[in-house]
Amino acid sequence: MQDTSFEQLDDLYQEVILDHYRSPRNQGEIPNPNVSSRGFNPFCGDEVILGLKLDANSKVESIGFKGQGCSISQASASILTELVKGKSLEEAQELSQLLRRLMKGQELSDEEVERLGAMEALQGVRQFPIRIKCALLAWATLDDGIEEYRAETGKGKEADSSPPD
Fold first, then answer.
1. pLDDT score recorded for residue 2
2. Nearest residue to 81 (alpha-carbon basis) of 41, 132, 141
3. pLDDT value at position 18?
4. How far is CA 160 from CA 98, 136, 141, 145, 155, in A?
5. Which of 69, 73, 78 lies closest to 27, judged by CA?
6. Ramachandran region of residue 36, left (φ > 0), alpha (ψ -120 to 50) or beta?
7. Which of 30, 46, 48, 156 is the most buried (most CB within 10 A)?
8. CB within 8 Å of 32: residues ≥ 6 apart
9. What is the pTM of this model?
10. What is the per-residue pLDDT for 123?
């Protein structure tokens, strides 16, 4: 018999995932994005296309995604768009690393868990190793897009954290 509190937590996490899947946030293309990338998982067919528009301080001003796939990959993309809006590219990549650590079952501090926000709902996915790639697809796509942007523009990590004017 399972502990009722764990069952309630699982139910809550499932609700968060289903909510983002059924009513995705920031779904759609961003015109003339500074950062764009396409992620595809050939094993299951999940696809995520991200576009980010940066402001003058290299913070994410607007973000959108298109995609198709399972509820986990699409919910993860939706949650990603909410979490990285207003963040620098470096901060976005830090969130990506936190999610990877969560998926690996590594311990996170309370502050790190708080930074993950709704992404914490995906922690149950790690019980199903085949689904971890679904949860990470949008984040790997984000990382790829940021690295490509940096390579094309010559803007390194130091440009991401420039102080506001």
1. 47
2. 141
3. 83
4. 18, 23, 18, 14, 8
5. 78
6. beta
7. 48
8. 53
9. 0.85
10. 86
Q: What is the pLDDT of residue 10?
A: 61
Which residues of the chain fall short of a pLDDT of 50?
1-2, 4, 6, 8-9, 161-165
Residues 72, 93, 79, CA angle at the centre, nearest 5°? Answer: 30
Tokens 């293309």 found at: 29
Say if CB 37 and CB 138 are below 8 A apart. no
The DSSP 8-state label assigned to residue 58 in this structure reads S
Instruction: Answer for the pair 36, 51: CB distance below 8 angstroms, yes or no.
Output: yes
Burial 13-33 (b: 16+ CB within 10 A, else e): beebbebbbeebbbeeebeeb
Which candidate, 46, 27, 51, 49, places its Cα nearest to that of 134?
46
pLDDT computed for residue 160 by the predictor = 52
Pick the CATH number of 25-156 from 3.90.1010.10, 2.30.42.10, 3.20.20.210, 1.20.140.160: 3.90.1010.10
